[in-house]
Amino acid sequence: MSSSTGTLFRVTTFGESHGPGLGAVVDGCPARLPLAQADIQAALDRRRPGQNALSTPRNEADTVEILSGVFDGLTLGTPIALLVRNHGQRSADYAPLAEIYRPSHADYTTEAKYGIRDPRGGGRASARETIGRVAAGAIAAKWLFADAGIEIRAYVESVHDVCLPREILAGLAAPDAPLPTLAQIDANPARCPHTPTAERIAGRIAAARAAGDSLGGVIRCRVRGVPPGLGEPVFDRIEALLAKAVLSLPACKGFDIGSGFAGATMRGSEHNDPFEFRDGVVRTTTNHSGGVQGGISNGEEISFRAAFKPVPSIALSQQSITRAGIPTELSIQGRHDPCVLPRAVPIVEAVTALTLADLCLRARAETGFQRKR
Ligand SMILES: Cc1cc2nc3c(=O)[nH]c(=O)nc-3n(C[C@H](O)[C@H](O)[C@H](O)COP(=O)(O)O)c2cc1C
After folding, report:
1. How distant, in Å, are the alpha carbons of 34, 43, 141, 216, 229 from that of 134?
2. Structural domains of the chain, ranges and CATH numbers in brackets
3. Where are any strands of DSSP class E within the chain?
4. DSSP code at position 263
5. Which residue among 337, 345, 347, 349 is best mutated to probe the pocket of ligand 1, counting the most ligand atoms within 8 A of its Cβ?
6. pLDDT per position as a tens digit, 37-90
7. Ligand 1 pocket member 336 (CB < 6 A)
8. Read out DSSP for 85-100?
């Protein structure tokens, strides 16, 4: 089983949801990057459970410890080990479910593959694994900004059938319009940068929770400052690596970049992005390509979407079978997220940062130089 990702900026995550702790080892982070525990903690605080009324009531601090690779506030170029100890796990909540395959969870598939599973929580399939990715991603994001001015910003675009209105979407996507700020996105628990839509989303999530149900939705992620020349033309196309990173997140079921699936209904004459020379640099006047052509960044904003399903743990009654194949009915109690979209925002940013930090280092090795936007 591979728990590692990346070629030069290499990350391994470890830990299960109900074990003693989780975390990551980051191998390949360049030396002399200023790095403090607070840089990583800020990202984990945006991910942690119990942060507001829309997330699970599990209230975990998820405090990170840096065990190696940093001295006097600077990275050493050696492996950076990051640990978050598990506290407040309620393994007893899972006891009644130990013999049942929870619908659309990883119980059956884990057991079918390994012949054994930890029935407390989701084990490695649990979203607590993403603690390691968010902690490592905070380091990658800091390096990307310090080294190349690259900024990554994600936000919730829709939950269930509540979506940002067309004119707001168009305004946000206008060429060279400023990215929504972190403060704008985090101004409401829905992490949607338009207050009226955020309030409707919050109402929808609260109603789903009250009904014992769950909801899915879509996150938009945008990256500014990417130089032309990251990525490769065949297997390691940027969009392929981003899709793998994002679809490797629990509950993520869809990815599209640039015009995405909508491009399938357009004509070439509408879809092509014309080139122009603007302020001394090669630019395109539109960005249906989402910042990537032939698998390589073209210097425009990289913009993609990730779709998350409604989480499988719901209090409403469901049919399933036991491990012995006997039909049974279950209702999942305990502390669950009725909708993971707001908490998934920093997780999508983290895996994007990990993918791009690796590609930046690889481009430097492949071409012998680092281009800046
Ligand atoms: C941030 C985050 C939090 C999640 N919290 C829960 C949860 O509280 N309850 C739940 O059933 N699933 C939750 N999930 C989703 C499950 O981990 C996931 O659906 C399950 O492991 C099966 O994997 P799959 O949906 O990718 O097939 C969460 C996912 C994310 C990204």
Report:
1. 18, 7, 10, 21, 26
2. 4-367 (3.60.150.10)
3. 4-5, 10-14, 21-27, 64-66, 70-71, 74-75, 80-85, 151-159, 162-163, 217-224, 252-257, 275-278, 281-284, 292-293, 296-297, 302-308, 318-321, 327-330
4. G
5. 337
6. 999 999 999 999 888 778 776 778 999 999 999 999 999 999 999 999 999 776
7. yes
8. E--S--GGGGGGGTTB
